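Summary for the lay section of the report: proteins are chains of building blocks that fold into shapes. Here we show the chain for Sugar ABC transporter substrate-binding protein and then a coded description of the shape we predicted for it.
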Amino acid sequence: MAYSSMSRRGFLGLAAGAGAGMALAACGSSGPSQGGGSGGEASYWFLTAPPAEQIRTNTVNRFNQANPDTQIKHNAFENDAYKTKIRTALGAGQAPTIIWGWGGGGLKSWVEAGQVDDLTDWFAQNAAVKDRLFPSSFGAATVNGKIYAMPCETVEPIVLFYDKRAFDRIGAEPPQSWGDIMDLVPKFNAKGIAPFSLAGQSRWTNMMWLEFLFDRIGGSEVFQAVFDGEKDAWSNPASLDALTKVQDLVKANGFVKGFSSVVADANADQALLTTGKAAMMVHGTWTYGSMEQEGGDFVSGGNLGYMNFPPVDGGKGDPTNTVGNPAQYLSISSKATAEQKETAKKFFSTAVLDDTEVGEWLNTGGVPIVKGSEGKIASAKDPEFLEFIYQTASNAKVFAQSWDQALSPTAAEALLDNIAKLFQLSISPQQYVDNMNQVIGK
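The coded shape description reads as follows.
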């Protein structure tokens, strides 16, 4: 499943196979500060949210302790705030030395603006650094055949989580099709349990529903056409079908009341599931760690269930397909000093995904993108969940990158805005299609 052996699939492309490469994302804090730094002191911005934030912080601290003359100052921000801040900082030439990101369309825009360094030669000179990582993790780090980011962290497919207790209350089994999902909605509502938790105010959480519905109904080629910039690609009949189905779910009270005011950064959507107020939640596997830490005995007590998103009756998509983050990515600002860049590269080669960090990811429910990680699953904290992640990612015919990361920042913002309006029922499926066709390729 090496990226170089695949035909061009754009942002798509983790083929099946137990030995396949995989990679994941998560979300990592201190207060805000400007980028740069003096001399060889490098700066590093990343996302908040436990447990990933602490793991990132621990890695920086270990590096600083081992390298007293080449320090890294780190700062963390919530998801949406980070996206705005990093875009502004890059545009102003004030980006941190090390830029945490998702690869894909966002990275491509940075490359085109000359804001990040080409790391191709560095990886060629440091083959051992590249060779220990899953080959497929380099796909979203590559622009026009050159590598502009260091893949890091873990492999994170998006899955359907559920509360086993809720299903016991209504005497039902987890859904095996879209029809099952719609049949379960009134049954959970009758018991006073929200069928699905959703942090709608964060917008990207809504997007995960469409990512699966588009795939399950029309196959991966539907969004591939959007990614490739084909004119009116959103007008595919499968698109309208998916958009209509998600509004049917909203109208049937499939989501928790007031979902459009729930925020993901505060883990409020996860709390609704762990406290028994919602039966199911479509979300990334990165949420496992925070549910385990903050959800009382929900995870340790065996109440958490998980599965790949079910197929849609009559759909063309392969039910093994998944979507999410093939890896997280670290780029180096082109505006950094030579000393800062050297510090960043030393961090990449000696600290990122060292043995301690790999163990920390495994113990918080993540599968690191380091070759051989699968061999350590059996001795990790929750081997069953880790094996589920590994199998979901490695058996997927297509592992698609999250839409808002695959597209350019301009198109991604229009995407998230229109998805929010779609879920709020303030635009129709056809209006969504018309609006999004206007930003294809932008």
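Put simply, here is one thing we learned. Confidence is low (pLDDT under 50) at residues 1-38.
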